Amino acid sequence: MQEVYEFLKKCGTYYLATVEGDQPRVRPFGTIDLFEDKLYIQTGKSKPCFAQMNGAKVEICAFDGGVWLRVAATLVDDDRYEAKAHMLDNYPNLKRMYDAADANTAVLYLKDATATFSSFTAAPRTVQF
Questions:
Q1: What is the CATH number of the domain that holds 116?
Q2: Most buried by CB count within 10 Å: which residue of 53, 54, 57, 98?
Q3: Within the chain, which residues score under 70 in pLDDT?
């Protein structure tokens, strides 16, 4: 999990795929946090993507220097103040829009994740957490 965290952090931007009805949705994300041995992402509960993510299967894709990472997981909302505060402390620029005590801030952790590192020069390698 640490390797996945470091890769996504290094990339800065990754892409999160969800499904809305029968329509795939893909959007850029930039938050990744390691808290209590879980990987977390952040969004707002008022955004359409939150309804598509909470309790749903998603896939994350990121690319860096000839290596790409795909992570398939289920996202689980963690509404605790501590989880939100940890995320926002690591992304202080988000504090202009979000607050750990507000009803809009959402942090979700990856559950039952399968991460696959791939490249054109090596066999794929899978990590589960």
A1: 2.30.110.10
A2: 53
A3: none
Q: Which two tokens stand for residue 62?
A: 């990121």
Q: What is the pTM of this model?
A: 0.95
Contact between 49 and 27 under an 8 Å Cβ cutoff? The reply is yes
- Dig out the tokens for 12 from the structure: 């800065």
Which of 28, 57, 54, 40 lies closest to 100 in space, CA to CA?
Answer: 40
DSSP state of 13: -
Query: Residue 113 has which token pair?
Result: 């994740």
Query: Which range of residues forms the domain containing residue 92?
Result: 2-128
Cβ count near 76 (within 10 Å): 17
Residues near 51 by beta carbon (within 8 Å), at least 6 away in sequence:
none
Number of folded domains that form the chain: 1
Burial state string for 46-58 with b = 16 or more CB within 10 A and e = fewer than 16:
eeebbebbeeeeb
Report d(CA 129, CA 126) in Å as an integer.
10
User: Average per-residue pLDDT in the chain?
Assistant: 97
69 burial via Cβ count (<10 Å: 0-12, 13-18, 19+): buried
The token pair at 39 is 């990987």
